[in-house]
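User: I'm putting together notes for a lab meeting next week and I want to include a structural view of one of the chains we've been expressing. I don't have a solved structure, so I'd like a prediction I can at least talk through. The sequence is below, exactly as it appears in our construct file.
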Amino acid sequence: MAQAAYEERPRRRGRRALVVLVVLLLLLVGLLVVADRVAVGVAERAIADQARQEVAKQDAQSSPPEVEVGGFPFLTQVLDGRYQHISIVLREVRGSVQGDAISLPRLDIDARDVRASLDTLRSGQGEVVAERVTGTGTISYDSLAALLDRPGLKLSEQGGKLAVTAPVDFLGQTFTITGTADVTVGEQGKVSLRFDDLTAEGLPDVPLARQLLTNYARSISIDVPLPELPFQLTVREVRPLPEGLTVTGDATNVPINAAG
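Assistant: Thanks for the context. Below is the predicted structure for the 260-residue chain, given as structure tokens.
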């Protein structure tokens, strides 16, 4: 019996040592995860500050940028000086275009393969460069209607197209014009609106009435001058969506911050 008890004690000591080792490893992993998340927070605040400066440089306004650095673990990305993915959200973006305010309720910036040294993140001095940046923003229909400046005109999305309704007077009566527009990206990244085939229920089918519809379509067919987008984004695509006219742009080799 004494021999059995003697053999049992070393086994228990071995199990205790293994438990202590596992606990220490878990604590170490936990500390590393915490350190990783703290480092992410520091980087996100630094990039948010640079994004705010980028918006201000272009005489625009927005709510404070919301930044999220993707990829885990973050500390290995720091050591490598290359970050997989950084997303920046700008809300309530406003800029002046020929005296008229363009409203972008939300602008989503997606930066991929971002290069930045540890010193740059720590000091805020130097360059943070993304190999590719894409951005998606939405022009509110109210803001777009204000640019067209026609009393009672309303814009919306119907079946994937930009739709218009507006009142028009003809021979002392008021009729409601309806129709859709072809929406494309024009020269210098402008959004091109081309309305045609407008109709108005009850409007007499006479040359004078048809000319009225043609003239109205021409008056609201414009190239929308967009405010300069941050991060050198060039508009490539435009689509009518229920929440507004959505524009998508991209750029390559883009400085996310100004060189210090």
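A couple of points you could mention at the meeting. The first strand starts at residue 60 and ends at 61. The helical segments are 2-57, 74-80, 118-123, 141-148, 207-219.

User: Perfect, that's what I needed.
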